[in-house]
Amino acid sequence: MSFKGVYVDNKPGEYKTDNDIKKIQLLCFDLTNYTVKSQLLLCSLGVFVFFILYGYLQELIFTLDGFRPYGWYLTLIQFGYYTVFGLIECRVKHIVRKISIGTYLLLALLTLGTMGFSNSSLGYLNYPTQVIFKCCKLIPVMVGSILIQGKKYRLLDFLAASLMCIGLILFTLADSMISPRFDFIGVVMISCALLCDAIIGNVQEKAMRQYKGTNTEVVLYSYSIGFLYLLLILLLTGDFVKGVSFCAKHPVEVYGYGLLFSLCGYLGIQIVLTLVQCCGAFVAATVTTCRKAVSIIISFMFFYKPFSFQYLWSGLLVILGIYLNIYSKQGNSKSDLREIWIKLKRCWSNQNRIQRQLMANV
């Protein structure tokens, strides 16, 4: 039997007509006719590739001696590159603005807070600590979804987010004890970035659904208006002249690496927006949290830092939280919790049986 529409594999028996189908595009690839699971897999892969490179280049730039006070100037450079990239893409694709300017004024302010405070915090915190703080946005994202969009979450979603945050907090405590580079100013900065980041995903999702705006449009207007905000602020504070003077002595490290850093970030943002569009803000936050865990491992591999086994146990809590979040997408919360408890008991019994066998063989 033929039909005109796309089968939605995560809702058995439900079909969508062509008029109801929301166009999903990953960079230059059309994923509209792909299943939701395939869209999630491809978007997640893109997030990992581009944002791991993004994190590496970001930390590399901040290894430059004396760059610590110029995080906001780096943000200005980044916003400038994003504006150019977005303008080129809009011209090539003939994209016109659909979302209201008033919405973009708010999005630009939130974007500036997220990116600016995040970049600046690296002058006062280790990269893994900064990433750990950013991962704690999962619960604020859920709260924002409930308040802004009226969404309802399951018990396992709250449990998953709580486990992630507990693990990430333990990671931060370990880092504060063994790392010589831990400044409370950095904590304040990354907390402000966290607050903005928790709000922005829900505002983006609501605006894109209401006005049918494209990812490219959102990126162009958010970052171009944010660039004007930040340029005015830096000119008023005098930090613009200081930033230009310092970076003129290190053009390759700042502007060259900054170009690659911004390109990876721009492509990554496009993919995250696609992920938000097809899967929602909380799923996007979960995927980016997993990516941040990998970025932390890479940071330890390529940039010397002290290590503690508390990092490992904290990471396991985060992984458990991620698993519970994925598992919560099936069945009802009570049966999910009961099944998880049964599986844990089974694993514990198997472990005890193996230990008894080993003891018997000794």
UniProtKB/TrEMBL annotation:
<keyword id="KW-0812">Transmembrane</keyword>
<comment type="similarity">
    <text>Belongs to the nucleotide-sugar transporter family. SLC35B subfamily.</text>
</comment>
<keyword id="KW-1133">Transmembrane helix</keyword>
<keyword id="KW-0472">Membrane</keyword>
<feature type="transmembrane region" description="Helical">
    <location>
        <begin position="104"/>
        <end position="125"/>
    </location>
</feature>
<dbReference type="GO" id="GO:0005789">
    <property type="term" value="C:endoplasmic reticulum membrane"/>
</dbReference>
<feature type="transmembrane region" description="Helical">
    <location>
        <begin position="184"/>
        <end position="203"/>
    </location>
</feature>
<feature type="transmembrane region" description="Helical">
    <location>
        <begin position="255"/>
        <end position="275"/>
    </location>
</feature>
<dbReference type="GO" id="GO:0046964">
    <property type="term" value="F:3'-phosphoadenosine 5'-phosphosulfate transmembrane transporter activity"/>
</dbReference>
<feature type="transmembrane region" description="Helical">
    <location>
        <begin position="282"/>
        <end position="304"/>
    </location>
</feature>
<feature type="transmembrane region" description="Helical">
    <location>
        <begin position="131"/>
        <end position="148"/>
    </location>
</feature>
<feature type="transmembrane region" description="Helical">
    <location>
        <begin position="155"/>
        <end position="178"/>
    </location>
</feature>
<protein>
    <recommendedName>
        <fullName>Adenosine 3'-phospho 5'-phosphosulfate transporter 2</fullName>
    </recommendedName>
</protein>
<feature type="transmembrane region" description="Helical">
    <location>
        <begin position="310"/>
        <end position="328"/>
    </location>
</feature>
<dbReference type="Pfam" id="PF08449">
    <property type="entry name" value="UAA"/>
</dbReference>
<feature type="transmembrane region" description="Helical">
    <location>
        <begin position="70"/>
        <end position="92"/>
    </location>
</feature>
<dbReference type="GO" id="GO:0000139">
    <property type="term" value="C:Golgi membrane"/>
</dbReference>
<feature type="transmembrane region" description="Helical">
    <location>
        <begin position="40"/>
        <end position="58"/>
    </location>
</feature>
<keyword id="KW-0813">Transport</keyword>
<feature type="transmembrane region" description="Helical">
    <location>
        <begin position="215"/>
        <end position="235"/>
    </location>
</feature>
<dbReference type="InterPro" id="IPR013657">
    <property type="entry name" value="SCL35B1-4/HUT1"/>
</dbReference>
